[in-house]
Amino acid sequence: MILKRDGAVENYAIRRGVPEDAKGIIECMQSVMDEKIYLVSEYYLLTERGERERLKNKDDLTLVCELNGKIAGVTTIQRGMYRKNRHVASLGIAIRKEYRHMGMGTGMIRDAISWSKQQGIEKINLEVFSSNVHAIQAYRNLGFQYEGVRKRQFLIGDRYVDDVLMTYFTSGWNGD
Ligand SMILES: CC(C)(COP(=O)(O)OP(=O)(O)OC[C@H]1O[C@@H](n2cnc3c(N)ncnc32)[C@H](O)[C@@H]1OP(=O)(O)O)[C@@H](O)C(=O)NCCC(=O)NCCS
């Protein structure tokens, strides 16, 4: 549910992405990439056809957040492909600028964590620019812990930022 500035209430739905969502997902991802300050890639590399194929893969999860027929946010969980890292997954998330700080990100990550638990995924990793303080706070609120920092890993314009590695143990394991 979103409470708009004029007092109106709109409902959004978080659901699993299907091949028919390919175009909307690409548009959503590209709009965030166009901002150039949150994601490493500046161009979505898959074509619509490639994205449709990717969405058929049942080993990974793509969640979309839909509002008035438009895809406002996308969250992906990509599981390790080897026997040695099948218990680990990587999380990616992007919400269109106009829909941020309305609870969509928190809702999608909670759903992604539940799905991961059901799949037997024990550890969810993510990487975030040190400059992205809102995202880091959102991840901390959800229980993600710091795992490491790669110093000056990225150059955004003329500013170096660190790559902050964060993780969530779905079993509640706390490192002991
Ligand atoms: C980071 C992101 C996923 C968070 O999702 P969201 O839907 O905007 O966040 P939520 O509404 O669920 O808010 C969760 C917390 O994030 C923080 N936050 C998010 N946006 C914020 C803002 N504009 N100002 C201050 N805090 C903010 C707050 O701590 C918030 O908790 P609160 O509501 O108790 O204050 C989303 O803003 C986004 O996609 N940003 C651009 C792309 C990006 O950074 N992707 C992640 C790359 S690693």
Automatic annotation (TrEMBL):
Keywords assigned: Transferase
Q: Residue limits of the N-acetyltransferase domain?
A: 12-171
User: Does the record carry Transferase as a key word?
Assistant: yes
- Classification via InterPro entries: Acyl_CoA_acyltransferase, GNAT_dom
- Drop me one GO molecular function for this one: acyltransferase activity, transferring groups other than amino-acyl groups
Domain of life the protein comes from: Archaea
**Is Protease found in the keyword set?**
no
Return any one Pfam family short name: Acetyltransf_1
UniProt name for this protein: Acetyltransferase
